[in-house]
Design goal:
Length: 280
């Protein structure tokens, strides 16, 4: 399995996303728990969640899913609201997340998106949480290249361990500046929603990609996921069933020829200039 590192810890180069998990009935929750466990059993130890996801429902579901597993072998990531970005509020938000997850520390804690609290204050609070042993590393989410570059100039900015942003065939803007910048720093980049999302941002699949998937004997979703993980970005995939998790795992073994990548590029061109950071 392809691996990478965050804060010196080796992790798989594919993470389990949890947006919208834990919000259905009991049967759906059991299916989602089975999906997470199928991923964990296959070695996908990185789980990404947030206090925002179902207002804690996703974290609670993850907490149930990981009960049988050795916590030290897992890599748990969560995110906090920008309005919880002061030192005191951040601590309260973290303690609530830890309780829902059933753990006493996070491997990575991220500011979910830029807010009104001065970032220097947020970074100082994160550094304190790390010093207290409540988190092993901290980072940012939905920060574009200029914002991340500025953040690194602040006290505690050099310790930013990762950044999480939207990345899929339809949202490639980060390839112009953010991806090369983070590669230069050796800072991991987590990419959420490799299949797009609802809310008017569903990816419209052209016939050329349908034909490509058929020629490769895989699904369109596997094409999208394999493409998103072909470079340095770590895709985060929400999965509601064990069967879908197995399909995601199979996508890890997919490679593309130059001609196949050209088909994808023709349908979804790479950026040729800086574009505003997209988010969902």
């Amino acid at each position: 399995m392809k691996t990478t590192k965050i804060n010196g810890i080796t992790i798989p180069a594919l993470g389990i996303g949890t947006w919208a998990l834990g919000e259905g009935d009991a049967a759906q929750s059991q299916s989602e728990i089975a999906a997470i466990r199928a991923g964990l059993d296959a070695g996908l130890t990185l789980i990404d969640t947030a206090e925002m996801y179902g207002e804690g429902a996703a974290e609670s579901l993850v907490g149930q899913a990981i009960i049988p597993y050795d916590r030290s072998k897992l890599y748990l990531v969560s995110k906090f609201y920008p309005w919880h970005a002061t030192a005191a509020q951040m601590r309260q938000a973290l303690e609530a997340s830890l309780q829902r997850l059933g753990t006493d520390y996070l491997d990575l804690y991220l500011l979910h998106w830029p807010g009104q609290t001065p970032l220097a204050e947020t970074l100082a609070g994160l550094a304190d949480l790390k010093k207290a042993g409540l988190i092993r590393a901290y980072g940012l989410s939905n920060f574009d290249h200029p914002a991340l570059k500025e953040a690194r100039t602040l006290p505690g900015g050099q310790a930013i361990a990762a950044n999480e942003v939207l990345y899929n065939v339809q949202a490639r803007g980060i390839e112009f500046d953010l991806v090369p910048y983070q590669e230069q720093l050796g800072m991991p980049l987590l990419g959420y929603s490799p299949f797009g999302s609802g809310n008017g941002q569903q990816i419209s699949i052209p016939d050329s990609l349908e034909q490509l998937a058929r020629s490769m004997h895989i699904s369109v979703h596997q094409v999208l996921l394999a493409w998103a993980g072909r470079g340095s970005v770590i895709p985060l995939v929400k999965t509601g069933s064990a069967a879908h998790m197995q399909a995601n795992l199979a996508a890890l073994n997919v490679t593309f020829s130059e001609d196949q990548l050209a088909i994808i590029d023709a349908a979804f061109p790479a950026p040729t200039r800086k574009v505003p950071l997209q988010s969902i």
